[in-house]
Amino acid sequence: MNNQTVEKLRNMRLGAMAQLHQQYVKENRFEGITCDEYLALLTDHQWEDRENNKIDRLLKQAGFRQNASLGDIKYGSERNLDKNMFVRLGTLDFVQRKENIIICGASGTGKSYLSQALGHQACLTGIKTLYTVTARIIKRLKLSKVDGTYLKELEKLARAELLILDDFGLQAFDNQDRETLMDIIDDRHGKRSTIIFSQIPVSAWYEIIGGEGTIADAILDRIVNSSHRIDLKGESMRKGILKQE
Fold first, then answer.
1. Taking every annotated instance into account, which residue ranges of this chain make up the domain IstB-like ATP-binding (predicted)?
2. Mean pLDDT over all residues of the chain?
3. Where does the pLDDT of residue 49 fall: very low under 50, low under 70, confident under 90, or very high at 90 and above?
C-alpha cells in the first residue's frame, strides 16, 4: 500500500513528498504526530523543494559571472557607496516600482559585483533576471534580424523582470546598434527594471550613443530619469585581491 502511495505521488510529480513519506514509513517515525501535522509536514517539504528548484532554475537562466551576495558587499566612504541607500535597493522595491539603477565607476571598483548581488537577491525572491554584456546582446540581436528571430529575442528580454546590462558604452554604437538599444529600452520603459553599469560617466553617454541626437535623447530620457544613481570611487578592488594572494 505504501509503495503504491509513493508511486502515485511520484506520478503526480510530488517527488519530494514521496521521498519524505517513504523515509517516515521506513523509519516508523509516526509516533506523536497527528494526521494534520503529518500532512502539513509533507506539504511544506514539497513546497520548499519546488521553491528551491525554481531558484536554482532562475539563477542558471540569469547567466551571472559571479556568485555575488548582498551580505559580502564592502561599504566605506572611499567607495562612495552609501550603505543605507544600497540596503534599500536590496529590498528590491525598485523592481516593484519599475525603476532602474545606473552604476558608474572605474574598472575594478565593484560595479559588476553590486549588480550581480542585486540580481542574485532578485532570483532568491523569485524574480526572473537576466545578466548580459551590452555589446554581446546587441550583436546577438543584430544577427537575429538576419534570421528573422529579432522580435522573438526582444520578447525574451522584455519578459525578464530585471535586466542587467554589463559594460555599457565600451564599444561605439552604429545606427543599427542605436535602434536596437532603443528597442530594448523602450520595451522595458515603465514595465520592467534595468540595471546598467559602465566605466563611462552618465554625462558622456549622449556622445557615446551618438547619432543625430533624437534616438540618444529618447534612450537617455527613458533610462536616466527613472534611475537610482551610484557613482563608485576609489582604487580597483582587484589590487586588494592581488595583495592578499
1. 9-239
2. 89
3. confident
In angstroms, the Cα distances linking 16 to 23, 24, 55, 170 are 11, 12, 16, 47
The H or E element containing residue 227 is strand 227-231
As a whole number of angstroms, the distance between CA 172 and CA 233 comes to 24
3-class secondary structure, 56:
helix
Q: Mean pLDDT lowest for which of 4-18, 144-158, 200-214, 229-243?
A: 229-243
**Model confidence pTM above 0.85:** no
Collapsing DSSP states into helix, strand and coil, what is residue 165? strand
- Distance, in Å, from the CA atom of 203 to the CA atom of 116, rounded to the nearest integer, reads 24
Q: Please give the DSSP secondary-structure letter assigned to residue 73.
A: P
Give mean pLDDT, residues 16-45. 85
Has residue 243 got a pLDDT over 70? no
DSSP conformation letters of 30-52: -TT--HHHHHHHHHHHHHHHHHH
User: Amino acid identity of 225?
Assistant: N
Cell numbers representing residue 245 in the block: 594572494
pLDDT score for 241? 43
Per-position b or e across 38-67, b if 16+ CB within 10 A of its CB: eeeebeebbeebeeeeeeeebbeebebeee
> How many other CB atoms are there within 10 angstroms of residue 229's CB atom?
12
In the three-class reduction of DSSP (H, G, I as helix; E, B as strand; rest coil), residue 133 is classed as strand
